[in-house]
Amino acid sequence: PCLGARISYYRISLLLATWFSVDCNPGPIDDIAVDRYFIPKSCIREVKSGDFVRYHYNGTFTDGKLFDSSYDRGAAFFGQVGQKWQIAGVDKGILGMCVNEHRKITVPPHLAYGSQGAGDKVPPDTTLVFDLVLLDVFNRADQVQTKVISTPKECKRSVMRTDFVRFHFNGTLLDGSAFDSSYKRSQTQDSVVGEGWLIKGLDEGLLGMCVGEIRHFIIPPFLAFGEKGYGTEIPAHASLVYHILLEDLHNPKDDIIVEVMKASEPCTRKSVAGDYIRYHYNASFLNGITFDSSYQHNHTYNTYIGMGYMIAGIDKGLQGVCTGERRRIILPPHLAYGQQGAGKDIPGSAVLVFDIHVIDFHGVKDTVQVDITRKSEACNETSEVNDFIQYHYNCSLLDGTLRDYETPQDVVLGGDKIIDGLDEALRNMCVGERRTVIVPPHLGHGEKGAGIVPGSAVLRFELELVSLQKGVPEGYLFIWLEESPGHLFEALDVNQDQQVPLEEFSQFIKQQVSEGKGRLKPAQDPDSVIIDMFKNQDRNTDGLITQDELKLKVDEDAEKTRHEEL
After folding, report:
1. What is the pTM of this model?
2. Can you give the residue range of the structural domain that contains 104?
3. What is the number of domains present in the chain?
4. Alpha carbons 344 and 178: distance in angstroms, whole number
C-alpha cells in the first residue's frame, strides 16, 4: 500500500485534474504510450510546459469502458501544463500537441491514480486511456500575433488611437470553429480604437492598419474575453482568431480633405457661396468601391453652393473651385451622412470620396463676359439694335463639349430671335471683329436648356461679324438719312395729278435708297416693304395716296403723343 496519498479536484474535472504524491515503492515503472492518430496539416504552435490548454477528452479503461468525458459535461477541460492541474501522465502526454490534433494517451497507474484509485469511478492500480483533441493553447507571456495578409498600394493614413474604424471580419476559435462574422450580417463592425470599445487584443492589432489592408490576428484569452467568455459562442479561456479587412477610417476631429487632381488654367474666377454650379462626380468609399456616379445618370449634378442644398462637406469643398477643375474631396461621416448613412448604399459612419469635375458655375447676377480677340482695322460703324447682321460662331459648353461649326448666321439685333446674351454680345461690333463671349444661363437657355444644351449651362461663343446692314427703329419700315423733302407729296406725284399710285411711290422710295438719302428695313424683300409702306399711306384702300392721306410716321407718332397728353 502507498502512504500519504492525497487527491485534489480542480473545477469541473473530477477525475482528470488530480495530483498526488506517493511515499512507497511503485513497483515496475512503465511510461505513457501516445498514439497521435490525427495530426493537422498546419500546427501554429506545440504545447510546452507552462502553457495553458483547453481540450476535450473521453477517459476509458483499457477495455474501452467510459469512466469520464468532458463532452458529457458540455465543457472542455482547462488547465496549465506542468503545474499539477491534471494527472501526471496526461500532463506529460500532452506535450508537443498541436491544436486540432487527436491523441490517445495510455497512462499507467502510477502516472494516473495509483493504488488509491479515484472514488468509485477508477479502481486502484488501473491503467487509463485518454482520447484527447486539443482546442486551444496559450501562454501568459503571449502577445497579439499579427500577420499581414495584404496591403494596399498606397496608404496615406493608418489607424491611430481615438480613430473611428469600420472593418469586416471573420472570427473563429483557435480550432477553427466560427463564432461570428460581419460578412454574414452584411454590416461592418464599427468602433473607436483605444477607448475600450473593443477587446484589448483588437485595440492593439488594429493600430497601424491602412484602409484596404487585411490582417490575421491570434489573440490570447487574457486580451480577449478571458475567464468569462462571451455568450454561447465564445467559451471561457478561448484564444480568438480574427481575419480583418479595414474598410474605413476617420477621426471625429477630421475636416474635409481637398486634393486638386487637375488645375484649370487660366482661372479668371473661383466659385463662392451663392453660385450655381454644374459638376460631374464619381462617389466612392475609402476602399474604392463606387456607390454613385453622375456619369451613370448621364447628367451633371446642379445646385447652389454654400446654401445647404448639399451635404456639408461637399458644400464646403466646392467653394473656391475653377471651371474645368478636377478635385477630390474626402468627407468624414460627420460632414457627410453621419451615423445613419443614406439608404441601402451608404452605411452609417462611412467616409466618402467624391471625384469632382467642375463643368461650370455662375452667379445669379453674372453678366455677359466679352473678350475681343481681334479688332477690325477700319471701323466706321458698329452693330446696334435693329441692325441686320451676318456672323460666324462656334458654341460650346465650358468643358469644351457641344461645339457647333455653322455657316454664317443672320439676324436682326433686338428682334428676340436669338438668346439675350448672344444678342447683347453681338452689339457694338465692327465687321471683321472677333470676340470670345461667356453667357450665363439666365441670359442663355435658362434652367430648361434647349435641344442638346443642358439646363443651367454656361455657354462659350467664339464670334466673328461678317457683314452689317444698318437697321431702322422698331415699328419703322423706312427712315430718312437726310432731311425729307419740304414738299413730299409733290415729290411723289411725278405726273402732278394729285394722286400717287404704287408705281410712282415705289419708284420714289427706291431712288432715295439708291442715292443714300433713305434706308429700308433690312432683311426683307424691298418690294414687299415698299408695298407695306404704301398700304399704310393708302388709308381708304383705293390704291391711291392723296395729299390728305400722306403722313410721315414721325408726325403720326408725335400726334399720338399729343393725344395721350391730352
Report:
1. 0.77
2. 33-138
3. 5
4. 27
